[in-house]
Specification:
With 143 residues, the protein is α/β, with parallel strands linked by helices. The protein is built from 6 helices and 5 strands. It has a single domain, classed as 3-Layer(aba) Sandwich (Ribose 5-phosphate Isomerase B, Chain: A), CATH 3.40.1400. Helix 2 crosses helix 3 and helix 4 packs parallel to helix 5. Bound molecules: D-ribose. D-ribose binds next to helix 3.
Length: 143
């Protein structure tokens, strides 16, 4: 599985930590590459588009709250981006939403919390069944 990583300045420290942590995966880093102020759409859109095109199978996008990145990613057709700040959300959004982009609030998670969320999100399977009917309804209305 290839993972697209992206952040802004507020997500940079967590992105760098996760980049090292995810050494069992192929990672494509869309930046930011330092803590200078940068606009999250500039890195978030290219990363989400890489997932849309299946150049990467998953994406992890990090800004201060995770909210900006989730707005960006969910503008991209085919992306189901989930802002998760707890383990339970990470598990449920994989099981129920077949989430393909994880958005994290870099300013509100410590490394341990982030790793738990990422591990759960990467390793939980989609349940399919009744959930697919709902995802099909979303896909049918995507612009
Ligand atoms: C940057 O200050 C901050 O606005 C950004 O990281 C993010 O939280 C936006 O949603």
């Amino acid at each position: 599985m290839k993972i697209a990583l992206a952040c802004d300045h507020a997500g940079y420290p967590l992105k760098e930590m996760l980049k090292k942590y995810l050494n069992d995966y192929e990672v494509l880093d869309f930046g930011a590459f330092n803590e200078e102020s940068i606009d999250y759409p500039d890195t978030g859109f290219p990363a989400a588009i890489a997932v849309q095109k299946n150049e990467c199978q998953r994406g992890i996008l990090i800004c201060g709250t995770g909210i900006g990145m989730s707005i960006v990613a969910n503008k991209v057709k085919g992306i189901r981006a989930s802002l998760c700040h707890c383990l339970e959300f990470a598990i449920l959004t994989r099981k129920h939403n077949n989430s393909n982009v994880l958005c994290l609030p870099g300013r509100f998670l410590d490394d341990n919390q982030a790793v738990q969320i990422v591990d759960a999100w990467l390793n939980t399977e989609y349940e399919d069944g009744r959930h697919q009917r709902r995802l099909d309804k979303i896909a049918a209305r995507e612009l």
